[in-house]
Amino acid sequence: MEKTTRRQIVLLGFTYVINITLVNIPSQVISSAEQYAYLSFILAGAVVLLMLFFLTRSSMRFPGQDLFQSLTCRFPIMGKAIVLLYMLFFFMILVRDIRTMADFTNVILLPITPILIISLCITATVVYLARGDVKTVLGITELYGPMMIIIVIVMPFIVMRDFDFDLMRPLLHVNWKGVAEGGWLSISYIGQILILPFIFHSKDYKFKHGLYSMLISLAILTILILMTILLLGIHVSGRLMYPTYELVRQLRVTDFLDRFDLIVVALWYPAILLNLAISLYIICYGLKIVIPSVSGKMMAAPIALFAFSCGFWFYESSIELFQFNWEWTLIALIFIVALPLLIFAIHRPLKT
Amino acid sequence: MIKVLLFYVTAAVVILLVDRKVIRNLPKVNRWFTYLLLIGGMVIFTYSILNKHVTYASVWLGELLRPLVPF
Fold first, then answer.
1. How far apart are CA A334 and CA A326, in angstroms?
2. Closest Cβ–Cβ partner in B11, B48, B57 for A305
3. What is the pLDDT at residue A250?
4. Which of A46, A54, A297, B26 has its CA 20 to 30 A from that of A40?
């Protein structure tokens, strides 16, 4: 079996954070933090990085095991309860992402196609991705991760001539309350990077991989949010549903390629399906850890169909989905702050 | 409206047919989990799509948690 490389781990963490974050929260973060929206991401990133450090240290106390394995071995009952709680967390992320993607496709790409069909197509694709091993997911990450990074780095050069730097004023009067609100919104999304020590065992995964992953994610999010503000302004982007898509629509490579957004969406869409596949994979993996006789691979399709149904029950509309971001952070903080601290405090090998 | 439910039923039948041979050789718990998830999904789907008055989970949770949100 091939060894998991450092690059694959970094790209998986980056992919899992960036793809849905750049769709779901820019509008709300810009509304709250205005031109200092990038500070919200940095604030949230700092908290998450600390929690990632705690989880990584906990994971390293059990060499050769990931956190799911070590928790269930060390604490047969409480460990399984913690794994089940994390499965629930990733299930809610999966449900939210299925609904987000179905809504985005319905609003932007396929307005006539019924949302049920779109949602079912997304779910079916995700099942096939997740049914492969983690190697399949990592292989696709290696393909689409660098592409997303390159596209975002190239974007400022294409739209630079349209930037209005006056839109960043006032530059030094930071609205800290707004920044804190933006941080509150973004922590639940950036915190998804905590998936890394749950998938990879401590021989492969080190804290520096999570750190690189986080730094790349924060850099990409900062570039995107700054470009959105410089191009669309605070008031317009704060009122748009998908300001990042609107930003991409502004990309025109002279007369040669005036629908550059189609290329970007075509590359971003498989990457977001990969996001869903990672969520589904970890739920199936967790189920296999909790009940060893269950085949994680065979559970992928039923769990995905269950998530598809829940997508229509959890959220009334895409507006409600965005509005729920405020309360979702409260739930996510249990998994991003409380449980990592608990794991760090109690998860130690037995003294012999 | 019942046609909408057919989407779900068709998807569930396809899953059962495709996995039929593999799942037969696995422990019974796999079959029970599959049936449980598919039936549970169908109940939720029927409730949320075919019902006129639906209590959406995010709306309910939102109402419950809003006082605790600091902003």
1. 14
2. B11
3. 83
4. A54
**Structure confidence at residue A301 (pLDDT):** 95
Which whole-number Å values give the CA distances from B51 to A266, A308, B2, B43, B55, in the listed order? 36, 17, 11, 11, 10
Which chain A residues touch B47 with a CB distance below 8 Å? Answer: 313
Please state, for a pLDDT cut of 70, what percent of chain A lies above it: 98
Q: Check: CB of residue A96 under 8 Å from CB of residue A315.
A: yes
Task: Name the β-bridge partners of A257.
Answer: A253
State yes or no: pLDDT of A2 exceeds 70.
Answer: no
Q: What average pLDDT does range A182-206 have in this prediction?
A: 93
Question: Are B37 and A298 an interchain contact pair (Cβ–Cβ within 8 Å)?
Answer: no
Q: At what angle do helices A260-290 and A296-314 cross, to 10 degrees?
A: 120
Q: Tokens representing A93?
A: 């992320």
| Domains, chain A, ordered by start | 6-346 (1.20.1740.10)
Distance CA A287, CA A283 (A): 6
Q: According to the model, what pLDDT value does residue A1 have? A: 47
Contact B37 A299 (CB under 8 A): yes
Model pLDDT, residue A256:
66
> What are the residues facing A253 on neighbouring strands?
A257
The beta-carbon neighbor of B37 closest among A124, A306, A324 is A306
Residues 11-70, chain B, touching A (beta carbon < 8 A)? 11-12, 15, 18-19, 22-23, 26-27, 29-30, 33-34, 37-38, 40-42, 44-45, 47-49, 54, 56-59, 61-62, 65-66, 68-70
Q: Kindly indicate the confidence band of residue A230, based on its pLDDT and cuts at 50, 70 and 90.
A: very high
Provide, as residue numbers in chain B, all residues whose Cβ is less than 8 Å from the Cβ of A188.
Answer: none
Using CA atoms, how far apart are residues A226 and A239, in angstroms rounded to an integer? 16
pLDDT of residue A278: 94
Cα–Cα distance, B12 to B16 (Å, whole number): 6
Say if CB A293 and CB B29 are below 8 A apart. yes
Half-sphere exposure of A297 (CA within 13 A, CB side): 10
Contact at CB, B26 and A295, closer than 8 angstroms:
yes
- Cβ burial of A289 (10 Å; 0-12, 13-18, 19+) is buried
Mean pLDDT, chain A, rounded, equals 92
Q: What H or E segment, with its residue span, contains residue A91? A: helix A78-104
Nearest CA in chain B to A300: B34
Inform me whether the C-beta atom of residue A305 falls under 8 Å from chain B C-beta atoms.
yes
